[in-house]
Amino acid sequence: SPKVQKIAAKVVHNGMYIFLGGTVLSGLLIGFLFWLGIKKGFLIDIIVTFHELVIHLLYLFIVIHIIAATYHRLKRDGVWSSMVPFFKEEK
Question: CA neighbours within 13 Å on the CB side: how many for 45?
C-alpha cells in the first residue's frame, strides 16, 4: 500500500480507539455528575456536548474504516486477506 494509505490507516485506527475511550470516559463523567446531583448547568452541558461530538466522530471513523475495507476487498490488493480471517481473496 502507498505511504499515504498507511498513514491514513494509522490515523483511523488510533482515532477509533481514542474516540471509543473518550466516549466511555465522558459517559462515566456524565454519570458521576448526575450521581452528585448536577443535572443542569454549564459544566454538564459542556460535557454532554463533548460526549455527543466524540460519538459522532467515532461513527464517522467507523464508516471510513468500512469504506476502506470494502475498497481493499474490491481492489484485491491483499490488504483484506491480512485483516479478515474469512472470505479470503483468491490468488
Answer: 3
Closest CA to 65 of 3, 15, 1: 15
CA nearest to 15, candidates 27, 3, 4, 7: 7
pLDDT tens for 40-64 read: 999 999 999 999 999 999 999 999 9
Q: How many C-beta atoms lie closer than 10 Å to residue 77's C-beta?
A: 14
Helical (H) or strand (E) element with 2: none
| AA identity, residue 82 | S
Determine the Cα–Cα distance for residues 89 and 15; give it in Å rounded to an integer. 28
